[in-house]
User: Fold this.
Amino acid sequence: MSLQTAGGNAGAPQTTETARRPRRGGRTAPASTGRGPRSSRIGSHLFLLALVLYFITPLWWLVVASTKTNSGLFTGTGGPLWFDDQFNLFQNLRDLSTHQGGIYWTWLGNSFLYALSAGVGATVLAVLAGYGFAKYRFRGRTFSFALLLGSVMVPLTALVIPTFVLLSEFQLVNTRWAVILPSLLSPLGVYLIRVYAQDVVPDEMLDAGRVDGAGELRLFFQVALPLLRPAIVTVLLLSVVATWNNYFLALAMLRSPDLLPITVGLNNWQMLSNAGAGGEQVWNLIVTGAFVSILPLIVAFLSLQRYWQGGLTLGAIK
Amino acid sequence: MEGIRRSARRPMAVAASAVAVTALAACGGSDGGSGGSGSASGESCTNEIVNADAPQVSVWAWYPAFEQVVDNFNETNDDVQICWTNAGQGADEYTKFSTALEAGSGAPDVIMLEAEVLSTFTIRDGLVDLSEYGAGELEGEFTEGAWSDVTNGDAIYAVPVDGGPMGMLYREDIFAEYGVEVPTTWEEFATAAQALKDAGYEGYITNFPTNGNAFIHALMAQKGWEPFTYDAAAPTEIGIAVDTEPAQEVLSYWEGLVDEGLVSTDEAFTADYNTSLVDGTYAVYLAAAWGPGYLQGLSDADEEATWRAAPIPQWEGEEPTQINWGGSTFAVTSQADDPELAAQVAMGIFGTEEAWDIGIEEAALFPLWKPVLESDGFATREYEFFDGQQIQQDVFLEAASGYQGFTFAPFQTYVYDQQTQQLFAMVEGSVDSAGALAGFEKSLVDYATAQGFTVTE
Assistant:
């Protein structure tokens, strides 16, 4: 440990501190609100209720709108936030499957492919790099970690054009790799893993393992990985969601309709619906398509919830 | 202890980086494979290739009904086949084309572009001059205005496809209900707007969208506004005369209507705007020839409304002037493998009556190709949406033949952005129409100068 702090950069202890703080706060918070006077609780409940309404309303709109016909969306009787007298959800879903030869499901499949492969790939790289940064001293560590922190600040969007030129050199534009490869890098993920690993994987434990004769790989897989699981799930979710929602990269890299993810595909329909000349208006399909496309993410978050929530209490050194 | 740790760590770091490298190398290897096969199978076409032996020309176009047009072309041509990709509509496609030009590869052979962006790409050497490939012979097959929009000096940068000559679509039932005459001049239009309001109509006679881009340009052009002079032969010189009398008169006219609450100022192509179009909030839709198709797509269930088409209002005491809003062309890109073959395709896609049957029937396109444009069948075509009115003969044919063309700037996107900003400030009341035009002109002159143009009046 002494080596760690002596050799590590000045920022390391601080980041450890900030990583620990929310967890402490999380444990004490319920107790303090429980003791508060009743009036302030009503106030905070009202505030929370307002927030819930604020965040739920767009979602509610989407649910309602996906049951409407094309003209019902604009001239429906129930207004934007209530159902029309015509319930068209199933017809919309059927049309979604047949419009342009059912290309919607191809897009959805592409989104899955991109999000999962880039998500898993980015997580693997982030875990390897983050663990390395946290637990090993090597030449240039401070510098390369500073570089990494700097690159957290650079949005992927800003790199799209240079990436395009680079990939076009390798004839990779308009292939699936053009979306997957750039999405594999997740500086924020590396940072999170490093901070987490520094905190929950004690050097003493690794040293004990070494004394018992475990190799570095075995230490990584059998000691560090299980401890890192909450962080891994968090980084996985973050990178899956980031790739799923990434719009501009796919817009710039891909042109074949068969390769598009759902974000760009739906936008194509929207542009066409707006185009007037030679376009066709499929607003109902766009809305229903958007509704269907968020379902997998909701499922993913709910089903993985216990893992990343579990992470909040894990990591205490007994 | 320290020594042991160190020695233990080094190999680990090396091993980790070795794993990373092999992982990357593995990716790289398989990339090369799939990339290679990707380009070997040609650009993956959306359509089926009929004659596999014939050379292929890649085409980007966004009309969904284009699929049938392509099939028709491929079935009737043995010597060349179209490989079609829908690379997005308008701005989306232009972004891709731009990045492809930047990267030096990735553009198609033939690309669908709106006439207004042609000079945006000629200035970047993105398009091929088709006059070398016999496009000049087509001049007589298109209207004067349509031809002038795709040419610059002696150079021909695209082949016109469809156009947007403008007319006025109005709700006959609303005008009848409130006993107001349908206007034929802009002066009558303002009176009618007031009369409708006085009679208790709760909507607006029409909408003045601050993001109206080409629509606003067209309204000002009707009074003789010629904001840009640009010659592709001298690409670094541009004449900018935005803040001129025609523009001032037109804009102060609309400013008056907005100030009196007679027209709304919703942004175009939003959900609110679409709703207002079909629910009777607007009594008039100032539209291009593709407008009826747009309207129909929105209001298929609203049977109460009776829509009619009439010519666009004119300014009193002036020669009737026809204006255009939108439309598309086919251009050959500078990355075309075989420009001659590509030019042949660009000229041939919509050069048959069969193709136009599909274009008119399926996509509600307005043809600029004279053999179809001037045919009886098109003129007397009855539109069910207008209860059988022959809207082409009544309105749009004359509008198309009277249109004289318009010169756009080689940075038209920026022009539209500035126009939107100034108009928004105007309808919000923070500047008047004169101030908006002055600001509009200044921003363009500053921008053009900064971009290295020599700016003249």
About this structure: The radius of gyration of chain A is 24 Å.
